[in-house]
Design goal:
eight-stranded parallel sheet, disordered N terminus, Arginase, Chain A, about 400 residues, 11 helices
């Protein structure tokens, strides 16, 4: 572990973070974290980051966003992993109970808080916790593979320690419903979620018209995308909605969730992005943080279930961009890393850090096509959210 220096970004990581493990048959396999770190290490990305550890979030810290009864039941089930509790949605197919579940979940939450603390106190310009991004967890129950909502806790820590305006941007294929719910009535937090539409994907929420609660109108922004949306359409939607709103809100810090299950090879979703398109989104987020909040950026992982071919490459790109040293997409993947995947599944890993896709998009200002499902979604989001934030929704 290296000593942190203020001019170097950091990653919050140690091997205990891979103990968040629902079992061999579950799609959220911790090997995706291990393979990401191995790839990043082989490529020299880790050398460009300060690697720092974390402590588990305490019960009092968790109680800032979760109910005491829920925390108590997670703790109890952690000691009795053969039991289930449907009242808190644990012991289900999505959220199986496992031994030391509370400890593993609290450590991920603590890691995201540490990432936020490092950036907010000036110890690092940017920070990443690839084990984090558990954005579905609700105040009183588990949801969608998520036990404790680490990103919401990190945002709460920032608010409690002087941040006046926080932007949360969620690019996971699934709607960031848990984080949105926890800050639905808080005008200090602007949540923006770009996701596959609720008509075709869990959790079935995140419509364009969902814009925030009383006193926080316009503070929830949702961009539901049609299934099949690829790089060009995704980037068109992102740039049509996100930068104008973030510039207008003028946040103190950016917190993001980088679920990479939007990839065309992901087994659980219906979006069609490439690693190249995902890399472009990370570059756009860094540029936005540099522009609006002096570069203060806390990034987390999230979904991603093509655990060998996609997640490690996508998040290695994320880590390199957080480090301020983006990788050439044409870079070859290390032979030893490919051999590791060969051992695990009998086939080698991808040979390059790219999917070979050229990344480009048509800017919204070039015209709105009402015959396009994608454009209708973008237009609906701008129409619902822009006026509430003092912006003109028309191109």
């Amino acid at each position: 572990m290296t000593e942190a220096t203020v001019d170097r970004a950091c990653i919050v990581y140690d091997e205990h973070l891979t103990q968040y493990n629902f079992g061999q048959s579950h799609p959220m396999a911790p090997v995706r974290i291990e393979l990401t770190m191995e790839l990043a290490d082989e490529l020299g990305i880790v050398e460009g980051l300060d690697v720092v550890g974390a402590k588990p979030a305490t019960e009092d810290e968790l109680a800032l966003i979760h109910t005491p009864l829920y925390i108590e039941r997670v703790q109890k089930l952690s000691q009795h992993p053969t039991h289930a509790d449907p009242t808190v949605n644990l012991g289900t197919e999505d959220n199986p109970v496992f031994a030391n579940m509370h400890e593993a979940s609290a450590l991920i939450a603590g890691a995201s808080v540490e990432a936020a603390r490092r950036v907010w106190t000036g110890q690092a310009p940017r920070a990443v916790n690839i084990s984090g991004g558990l954005h579905h967890a609700m105040p009183d129950r588990a949801s969608g593979f998520c036990i404790y909502n680490d990103v919401a806790l990190a945002i709460r820590w920032l608010l409690d320690n002087g941040a006046e305006r926080v932007v949360y941007i969620d690019v996971d294929a699934h709607h960031g419903d848990g984080v949105q719910k926890m800050f639905w009535n808080d005008p200090r937090v602007l949540t923006i979620s770009i996701h596959e539409g609720p008509q075709t994907l869990f959790p079935g929420t995140g419509f364009s018209i969902d814009t925030g609660g009383e006193g926080a109108e316009g503070m929830a922004v949702n961009v539901p995308l049609p299934p099949g949306t690829s790089d060009a359409g995704w980037l068109r939607a992102f740039h049509a909605v996100v930068p104008p709103l973030v510039r207008e809100f003028a946040p103190d810090i950016l917190v993001t969730q980088q679920g990479c299950d939007s990839h065309m090879d992901d087994p659980l979703t219906n979006l069609m992005l490439s690693v190249d398109g995902q890399r472009a989104s990370y570059l756009a987020l860094k540029a936005l943080a540099d522009e609006v909040c002096d570069g203060k950026w806390v990034a987390t992982g999230g979904g991603g279930y093509a655990v060998m071919d996609v997640v490690p490459r996508a998040w290695a790109h994320l880590m390199a961009i957080v480090a301020g040293q983006p990788l050439d997409p044409q870079a070859p993947t290390p032979e030893r890393w490919r051999a590791r995947i060969q051992e695990l599944r009998g086939m080698p890993g991808p040979h390059r850090m790219t999917d070979g896709r050229a990344v480009g998009y048509r800017a919204w200002e070039q015209g709105f096509d009402p015959a396009s499902w994608l454009d209708r979604s973008i237009h609906a989001t701008r129409e619902a959210s822009f006026p509430l934030n003092g912006l003109d929704h028309l191109p």
